[in-house]
UniProtKB/TrEMBL annotation:
Domain of life from the UniProt record: Bacteria
GO cellular component term of the entry, any: plasma membrane
Chain ranges of the ABC transporter domain: 1-212
MF annotations from Gene Ontology: ATP binding; ATP hydrolysis activity; transmembrane transporter activity
Magnesium in keyword set: no
Protein name: ABC transporter ATP-binding protein
Taxonomic path: Bacteria, Bacillati, Actinomycetota, Actinomycetes, Micromonosporales
Coiled coil: none
Keywords: ATP-binding, Nucleotide-binding
InterPro entries, per database record: AAA+_ATPase, ABC_transporter-like_ATP-bd, ABC_transporter-like_CS, ABC_transpr_LolD-like, P-loop_NTPase
Amino acid sequence: MELKSVDLGYASGEPVLRGVTVTARPGEVLAVTGTSGAGKTTLLNAMAGLLPPRSGTVTVDGSPLGGRDAAVGRGVVLIPQENGLAAILTAAENVSVAVIATGGSPADARRRTADALAAVGLAGQANQLIEELSGGQQQRAAIARGLALQGVVVLADEVTSELDAANRQKVLELLRAEADRGATVVLATHDPEAAASCDRELHLADGVAGWARP
Ligand SMILES: Nc1ncnc2c1ncn2[C@@H]1O[C@H](COP(=O)(O)OP(=O)(O)OP(=O)(O)O)[C@@H](O)[C@H]1O
């Protein structure tokens, strides 16, 4: 995924980010860091096709990303900061519905759901409603849904913020495994240890992006 001279903002407000140029590559985990409000979610939303750039280009494999539907069709998976889970469905239903919505068969969905929930340590909570899970368990359910989609690009927005040290480590390992199978992984985080586990670090400050670790 390549961003060239991208300007991002909301409605007619001041730009949030200006002139962002970055390539996220298959097989690597790219950290996007910055203080609260620096624009991490804004950048990931642009990479997800949710926020069209005011200027500049976002491309995947050389062709324009398009809107969110097109991005989903090209395998761009977003694990959003607020989880985006349906509270009145179970953890397993949340994952399965997403797999089926992106073309998986019911059998496929069952297998991938079981595997993904087990990977994040939620096998025992598969049939519990999301609203009955703790904040950290909900965050892991959202990660399981993202993993089950087997994305070409995996955008993870602050996915370790509610996790204890052991679960955070596990999730960072799972993101690494996504990169190892060939995915392009981008992790937005304000956790320096999580950022240190990534291959490169793009730091956002004062509306611009610069390399903390190229
Ligand atoms: N929907 C929106 N409409 C208008 N402004 C927005 C919107 N979403 C975010 N912003 C603004 O864009 C700027 C960057 O916000 P963003 O959520 O991208 O930051 P962040 O780095 O992800 O922060 P955090 O670490 O707190 O999640 C902030 O000034 C915020 O107020």
